[in-house]
Amino acid sequence: MYSLLILTCGFLCVTGSPNLRTAILIEKRTEFGQNLFFRGGLDYSRKEGCDSATSLESNPCVIPIQHNISSIDAYKAAKAWSEGDNYLDWSGAEPEQGDWTNIPASGSPAIWTTNDPSKETFNILNTYGDHYWLLDVEMDCGKTLNGFFEVKGFLDGQWENDIKQARKCSGTEAVRRPFESKNHIAKCGAKNVFHFNDGACEISKFD
Ligand SMILES: *[C@@H]1O[C@H](CO)[C@@H](O)[C@H](O)[C@H]1NC(C)=O
Protein backbone atom coordinates (compact mmCIF):
# COMPACT_ATOMS: atom_id res chain seq x y z
CA MET A 1 0.00 0.00 0.00
CA TYR A 2 2.78 2.42 1.00
CA SER A 3 4.81 1.75 -2.15
CA LEU A 4 1.67 2.11 -4.23
CA LEU A 5 1.18 5.59 -2.80
CA ILE A 6 4.76 6.52 -3.60
CA LEU A 7 4.42 5.21 -7.14
CA THR A 8 1.18 7.11 -7.67
CA CYS A 9 2.67 10.32 -6.37
CA GLY A 10 5.84 9.77 -8.38
CA PHE A 11 3.83 9.50 -11.53
CA LEU A 12 1.40 12.33 -10.81
CA CYS A 13 4.05 14.64 -9.42
CA VAL A 14 6.45 14.20 -12.34
CA THR A 15 4.09 14.17 -15.30
CA GLY A 16 1.20 16.22 -13.92
CA SER A 17 -1.03 14.55 -16.49
CA PRO A 18 -2.14 11.15 -15.30
CA ASN A 19 -3.85 8.81 -17.70
CA LEU A 20 -6.74 7.22 -15.86
CA ARG A 21 -9.36 4.75 -16.93
CA THR A 22 -12.52 6.73 -17.62
CA ALA A 23 -15.87 5.31 -18.68
CA ILE A 24 -18.87 7.14 -20.08
CA LEU A 25 -22.13 5.31 -20.62
CA ILE A 26 -24.99 7.01 -22.42
CA GLU A 27 -28.25 5.13 -22.48
CA LYS A 28 -29.90 5.45 -25.91
CA ARG A 29 -32.35 2.94 -27.34
CA THR A 30 -31.14 2.33 -30.90
CA GLU A 31 -32.02 0.12 -33.85
CA PHE A 32 -29.64 -2.55 -35.11
CA GLY A 33 -27.15 -0.88 -37.46
CA GLN A 34 -27.23 2.52 -35.77
CA ASN A 35 -23.97 3.73 -34.26
CA LEU A 36 -23.64 6.22 -31.46
CA PHE A 37 -20.53 8.40 -31.40
CA PHE A 38 -19.33 10.61 -28.58
CA ARG A 39 -17.85 14.06 -28.97
CA GLY A 40 -16.47 16.24 -26.23
CA GLY A 41 -13.56 17.74 -24.39
CA LEU A 42 -14.07 21.23 -23.02
CA ASP A 43 -16.21 24.00 -24.46
CA TYR A 44 -13.94 26.37 -26.40
CA SER A 45 -14.84 29.25 -24.04
CA ARG A 46 -13.27 27.52 -21.04
CA LYS A 47 -9.56 27.83 -21.86
CA GLU A 48 -7.28 30.18 -23.78
CA GLY A 49 -6.30 29.08 -27.26
CA CYS A 50 -9.20 26.73 -27.99
CA ASP A 51 -10.66 27.01 -31.47
CA SER A 52 -11.49 24.78 -34.37
CA ALA A 53 -8.64 26.15 -36.50
CA THR A 54 -6.08 24.81 -33.99
CA SER A 55 -4.65 21.34 -34.57
CA LEU A 56 -5.80 18.64 -32.16
CA GLU A 57 -2.22 18.34 -30.83
CA SER A 58 -2.17 21.96 -29.66
CA ASN A 59 -5.84 22.51 -28.80
CA PRO A 60 -6.18 22.80 -24.99
CA CYS A 61 -9.89 21.83 -25.15
CA VAL A 62 -9.48 18.32 -26.59
CA ILE A 63 -8.44 15.36 -24.46
CA PRO A 64 -6.05 12.52 -25.38
CA ILE A 65 -7.64 9.06 -25.10
CA GLN A 66 -6.80 5.43 -25.82
CA HIS A 67 -9.75 3.16 -26.55
CA ASN A 68 -10.38 -0.18 -24.87
CA ILE A 69 -12.68 -2.13 -27.22
CA SER A 70 -12.78 -5.92 -27.21
CA SER A 71 -12.30 -7.74 -30.50
CA ILE A 72 -15.72 -9.35 -30.83
CA ASP A 73 -17.70 -9.38 -34.05
CA ALA A 74 -20.39 -7.08 -32.69
CA TYR A 75 -17.77 -4.38 -32.19
CA LYS A 76 -15.91 -4.59 -35.49
CA ALA A 77 -17.23 -1.25 -36.76
CA ALA A 78 -16.35 0.52 -33.51
CA LYS A 79 -12.94 -1.18 -33.48
CA ALA A 80 -12.18 0.06 -37.00
CA TRP A 81 -13.34 3.59 -36.14
CA SER A 82 -11.25 3.57 -32.96
CA GLU A 83 -8.00 3.14 -34.90
CA GLY A 84 -6.18 6.46 -34.91
CA ASP A 85 -8.87 8.12 -32.78
CA ASN A 86 -6.52 9.79 -30.34
CA TYR A 87 -8.69 12.53 -28.85
CA LEU A 88 -12.10 13.20 -27.40
CA ASP A 89 -12.91 16.30 -29.43
CA TRP A 90 -15.84 18.20 -30.93
CA SER A 91 -15.40 17.17 -34.59
CA GLY A 92 -15.97 14.12 -36.75
CA ALA A 93 -13.15 11.91 -38.01
CA GLU A 94 -9.58 12.79 -37.04
CA PRO A 95 -6.99 12.99 -39.85
CA GLU A 96 -5.65 9.48 -39.15
CA GLN A 97 -8.86 7.89 -37.90
CA GLY A 98 -9.93 4.60 -39.44
CA ASP A 99 -13.11 4.12 -41.45
CA TRP A 100 -15.37 1.10 -41.72
CA THR A 101 -16.74 -0.16 -45.04
CA ASN A 102 -15.72 3.26 -46.41
CA ILE A 103 -17.87 5.05 -43.82
CA PRO A 104 -15.85 7.63 -41.88
CA ALA A 105 -16.26 8.02 -38.12
CA SER A 106 -18.50 10.81 -36.78
CA GLY A 107 -16.55 11.19 -33.54
CA SER A 108 -15.25 8.70 -31.01
CA PRO A 109 -17.08 5.36 -31.46
CA ALA A 110 -19.01 3.95 -28.49
CA ILE A 111 -20.01 0.30 -28.11
CA TRP A 112 -23.50 -1.05 -27.43
CA THR A 113 -23.60 -2.90 -24.09
CA THR A 114 -26.04 -4.87 -21.99
CA ASN A 115 -26.17 -6.03 -18.38
CA ASP A 116 -27.25 -9.51 -19.54
CA PRO A 117 -24.27 -11.79 -18.79
CA SER A 118 -25.42 -14.39 -21.32
CA LYS A 119 -24.75 -11.96 -24.20
CA GLU A 120 -21.43 -11.32 -25.90
CA THR A 121 -22.05 -7.59 -25.53
CA PHE A 122 -22.31 -7.86 -21.74
CA ASN A 123 -20.03 -5.40 -19.97
CA ILE A 124 -19.33 -5.48 -16.27
CA LEU A 125 -19.56 -1.68 -16.08
CA ASN A 126 -23.19 -1.92 -17.17
CA THR A 127 -25.41 -2.88 -14.24
CA TYR A 128 -28.43 -1.17 -15.77
CA GLY A 129 -29.89 -2.73 -18.91
CA ASP A 130 -29.72 -2.88 -22.71
CA HIS A 131 -28.66 0.06 -24.88
CA TYR A 132 -26.01 1.57 -22.62
CA TRP A 133 -23.47 2.86 -25.14
CA LEU A 134 -19.98 2.82 -23.62
CA LEU A 135 -16.77 4.72 -24.18
CA ASP A 136 -14.08 2.97 -22.09
CA VAL A 137 -10.76 4.78 -22.39
CA GLU A 138 -7.51 5.74 -20.73
CA MET A 139 -7.85 9.53 -20.53
CA ASP A 140 -5.32 12.29 -19.92
CA CYS A 141 -6.93 13.86 -16.86
CA GLY A 142 -4.32 16.64 -16.98
CA LYS A 143 -6.16 18.08 -20.01
CA THR A 144 -9.50 18.39 -18.16
CA LEU A 145 -10.78 21.29 -16.06
CA ASN A 146 -10.05 20.29 -12.46
CA GLY A 147 -10.84 16.69 -13.38
CA PHE A 148 -14.06 17.40 -15.30
CA PHE A 149 -14.84 17.44 -19.01
CA GLU A 150 -17.87 17.58 -21.29
CA VAL A 151 -19.40 15.04 -23.63
CA LYS A 152 -22.34 14.76 -26.01
CA GLY A 153 -23.75 12.01 -28.21
CA PHE A 154 -23.86 12.15 -32.00
CA LEU A 155 -26.22 9.81 -33.85
CA ASP A 156 -27.11 9.57 -37.54
CA GLY A 157 -25.51 12.93 -38.27
CA GLN A 158 -27.35 14.71 -35.44
CA TRP A 159 -26.15 16.10 -32.16
CA GLU A 160 -27.85 15.07 -28.96
CA ASN A 161 -30.07 17.89 -27.63
CA ASP A 162 -28.68 20.42 -25.21
CA ILE A 163 -28.45 19.04 -21.69
CA LYS A 164 -29.32 20.63 -18.38
CA GLN A 165 -27.45 18.35 -16.05
CA ALA A 166 -28.74 17.74 -12.53
CA ARG A 167 -27.18 20.04 -9.94
CA LYS A 168 -25.75 16.97 -8.29
CA CYS A 169 -25.41 13.50 -9.76
CA SER A 170 -25.97 10.29 -7.81
CA GLY A 171 -23.00 8.00 -7.14
CA THR A 172 -19.94 7.80 -4.93
CA GLU A 173 -17.92 10.40 -6.89
CA ALA A 174 -20.71 12.93 -7.35
CA VAL A 175 -20.05 16.54 -6.44
CA ARG A 176 -21.99 19.73 -7.04
CA ARG A 177 -22.07 20.55 -10.78
CA PRO A 178 -18.61 22.17 -11.30
CA PHE A 179 -19.74 24.57 -14.07
CA GLU A 180 -22.72 25.33 -16.32
CA SER A 181 -22.83 23.51 -19.64
CA LYS A 182 -25.13 22.43 -22.46
CA ASN A 183 -23.32 19.09 -22.42
CA HIS A 184 -23.09 16.19 -20.02
CA ILE A 185 -20.38 16.95 -17.44
CA ALA A 186 -18.23 13.91 -16.64
CA LYS A 187 -15.40 13.14 -14.25
CA CYS A 188 -12.03 11.87 -15.45
CA GLY A 189 -10.92 8.63 -13.77
CA ALA A 190 -14.49 7.62 -12.90
CA LYS A 191 -17.50 5.83 -14.34
CA ASN A 192 -20.08 8.30 -15.65
CA VAL A 193 -23.62 7.23 -16.53
CA PHE A 194 -25.92 9.47 -18.57
CA HIS A 195 -29.10 9.26 -20.66
CA PHE A 196 -29.53 10.64 -24.17
CA ASN A 197 -31.26 14.06 -24.18
CA ASP A 198 -31.55 13.95 -20.38
CA GLY A 199 -29.85 15.64 -17.43
CA ALA A 200 -29.84 12.74 -14.97
CA CYS A 201 -26.38 11.45 -14.06
CA GLU A 202 -24.42 9.05 -11.89
CA ILE A 203 -20.70 9.35 -11.23
CA SER A 204 -18.97 6.59 -9.31
CA LYS A 205 -15.67 4.87 -8.67
CA PHE A 206 -14.75 1.73 -10.57
CA ASP A 207 -15.49 -1.28 -8.36
C1 LIG B 1 -10.65 -3.05 -20.83
O1 LIG B 1 -11.94 -3.60 -20.81
C2 LIG B 1 -12.01 -4.90 -20.22
C3 LIG B 1 -13.42 -5.44 -20.43
O2 LIG B 1 -14.40 -4.54 -20.03
C4 LIG B 1 -11.60 -4.80 -18.77
O3 LIG B 1 -11.66 -6.06 -18.13
C5 LIG B 1 -10.19 -4.22 -18.69
O4 LIG B 1 -9.82 -4.01 -17.34
C6 LIG B 1 -10.10 -2.90 -19.43
N1 LIG B 1 -8.71 -2.45 -19.50
C7 LIG B 1 -8.34 -1.24 -19.10
C8 LIG B 1 -6.88 -0.93 -19.28
O5 LIG B 1 -9.09 -0.42 -18.62
Alpha-carbon Rg, integer: 17 Å
Average pLDDT works out at 93
Tally of contiguous helical segments? 2
Contiguous uncertain segments of 5+ residues: 1-7
The total strand number stands at 12
- The helix/strand series, from N terminus to C terminus, equals HEEEHEEEEEEEEE
Strand content: 25-35%
Helix/strand class: mainly beta
**What ligands does this structure carry?**
2-acetamido-2-deoxy-beta-D-glucopyranose
Outline type = globular
Helix content: 10-25%
Major sheet attributes: 7 strands, mixed
For the termini, the CA-CA separation is 18 Å
Keywords: Signal
Protein name: Alpha-amylase-like
Signal peptide: 1-16
Question: Could you explain how this protein is built, in words?
Answer:
Keywords: Signal. Residues 1-16 form the signal peptide. This is Alpha-amylase-like. By secondary structure, the chain is mainly beta. The protein contains 2 helices and 12 strands. The strands form 2 sheets. Strands 1, 3, 4, 6, 7, 11 and 12 form a 7-stranded mixed beta sheet that branches. 2-acetamido-2-deoxy-beta-D-glucopyranose binds next to loops.
Overview in brief:
This protein has 207 residues and is mainly beta.
What's the topology here?
Elements: H1 2-15, E1 19-27, E2 36-41, E3 63-67, H2 76-82, E4 87-88, E5 108-109, E6 111-113, E7 132-140, E8 148-155, E9 158-159, E10 184-187, E11 191-195, E12 198-204
Parallel strand pairs: 1-11
Antiparallel strand pairs: 1-7, 2-5, 2-8, 3-4, 3-7, 6-7, 8-9, 8-10, 11-12
